Amino acid sequence: MLTARFRVIAAPGSILALVLWVVWALAAPASADATAFWGYWQADGSKWAFAQTGPASTHPKDGTVEGWRFAKSSGESGTPPRDAPDFAKICGSTPKQAGAKRVAVVIDYGEAADAPAGATPPAAKTSCASVPQNATGSDVLAKVARPQSDKSGLVCAIDAFGTCAAAAPSSSSSPSATAAPAKKKSAGSTAVSIIIGVLLVLAAGGSMMAVRRRAKL
After folding, report:
1. Closest to 43 measured CA to CA, from 63, 58, 57
2. Nearest in space to 124 (alpha carbons), one of 109, 142, 114, 113
3. d(C-alpha 117, C-alpha 115), whole Å
């Protein structure tokens, strides 16, 4: 009798453990975007090297190649663009102007597996930026794309693609009149709610069984 009683009383605790495990397992994918970021790269010969300084404090020289790649990474250096840096190929047809410098830019939006939920990465693109001699890496990027930065100043989206992507406001309306996007409930959060509800009902049932069994003993 004692053994049977112990097993019934232990059931609610086991169910609670199962609830916590399910919550963790289903919530884990929601943090996947946190490891994806726009990496800033610079050409080192025919290969890419992760930039040692941010684009706002970098002044690329004429004839250099800058790269951007959106990818998930467990390290701090990220993943380089898939296209090799090739200034002649990208800027060869762009004439040099007085007082300006030419900087080739490669923007790789990454793979579908790395894209934020619901987003499809555009095809990679290359551009030749003709900018003032004192232009920074940020200026170069803004010349050929539409970057967005987070509160810390890090580039978190390019051309409305990234972890902080936001659609450009319509030219026919003022920013203050732009409605905030409605928050969508993810399938993961819905599944968590349903499963938690079911398991809590089971836990409550197990507790009632334990009480009844103790009353009979």
Report:
1. 63
2. 109
3. 6
How far apart are the C-alpha atoms of 43 and 85, rounded to whole Å? 6
Q: How far apart are the first and last CA of the chain?
A: 8
What are the pLDDT digits (tens) for 18-60? 454 444 444 444 444 447 999 999 999 999 999 999 999 999 9
DSSP labels, 157-210: EETTEETT--PPPPTTS-GGGPPPPPPPPPHHHHHHHHHHHHHHHHHHHHHHHH
Q: What is the pTM of this model?
A: 0.63
DSSP code per residue over 70-130: EEE-SSSS----SSPP-HHHHHTTS---TTEEEEEEEEE---GGGSPTT--PPPPEEEEEE
Alpha carbons 58 and 135: distance in angstroms, whole number: 9
For residue 29, give the 3-state DSSP assignment. helix
